[in-house]
Amino acid sequence: MLRFEIVIDIERPVADVFAFVSDFTHLPLWNYYIRETTPEDAGPLRVGRRYRQTRKTDTQKFEVIEYIPDQTVAIRLLKPTPPAIIRYTFQETSEGTRLTDEWSLKTIVPLPGFVTRFATRSTKAAVAQNLAKLKTLLETGSVTLQDGRRTQF
Known about the structure:
Strand order of the largest sheet: 1-7-6-5-4-3-2
Structural class: alpha+beta
Strand content: 35-45%
Helix content: 25-40%
Oligomer: single chain
Number of strands: 9
Radius of gyration: 15 Å
Order of helices and strands: EHHEEEEEEHEE
Shape: globular
Largest sheet: 7 strands, antiparallel
C-alpha cells in the first residue's frame, strides 16, 4: 500500500478552490499527464458520479465516493486500474485555502519495502509538481505545465 499526503496553501477563497478542483474536467489544466476528463453522465457533482479520463499513456475511470461542498471531495479509481483513493480536503486560512491531497494506492502484489518507498517518493513528487501548477493557475490565472502546454483559467 502506498500512502502519502501533500498540503499546499492557495491564496484564493475556499469556495473558489473547491469549485475548481472538484470540477474534474479542469484536471488537464493543472495536471500535465491528463489530456481530457469527461463525466459519463449529465448533472451536478454527486457521490456515485463517474468520469473517464484520457492520460498520456492510457485511459482510466473513476467515481466520486465522498462529496461535502467546500470541505472535501474524494474519488476512487476503477478497474482495471489498481485500486486507489484520492481525497482533497479544503480548509479556510487567513490567506485563503489550505488544500490537503491524500493518496492511498493499493498495489496488485505485495512489494518489498524499498520498492514501496521508491514508488511512494516518485508518485508524491509528481503529485507535488502538479499541485504547484494548480496553485500558480488559481493565483495568477495561467500556468505552463511540465510538457510545455500553457493553460489559462
